[in-house]
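Show me any protein, keeping tokens residue-aligned.
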Amino acid sequence: MSVQFSKPARGGVVALVLTSLAVFPGQANSRQRSMTRSGNGGQEVSGPSAGKAREHPGKTIRYRNTRYDFCFSLPEGWRGYSIVVSQWHGLAGGPHGEGTIQHGLIIAIRSPEWTAARPRQDIPIMIFAQAQWRLLQQHVFSVGAAPVGPTKLGSNSRFVFAVPARYNFAFPPGYKEVERILNSHPLKAPCVARPSHS
């Protein structure tokens, strides 16, 4: 992926640069299996199991990330999601040009309906250490060319989780569904284990 931005005038605004690192499936469909490794992606399920991805009002599945201690609720139709990991770069402008001064992960939850021929909107979750988030709020660095910063989804004692500004700028298929998911306040941090029913 190649992104070019013109150099900003005095003090400038900087660009978000993404570098793909890996893809991990929830339960990858056959088209994704060749580009992902198998595993359950930390997925937890609420409600009865279902076969193919389809909508079941009120039933959810849950992506759980134990490393960063957060959970993210998804509609049942997202069963089989994949996790795509990339990196954000915090850039600072100055009299001697721009440079990366901070970096962190973006964990994107990808719809099971996503294909290379017909990509759909991912749910990108930027992960910031608490100190990085404070520096971002103080405008010490920027993670995008948008005049606003990322939108905070939640936090725990160590990390802040946010959605990049203009993550859906191209309005790809599925962007409205992702907006509905994000409006339902799906991220919980810290992640509290669900009680098991015997």
About this structure: The chain has one domain: 19-44+60-188.
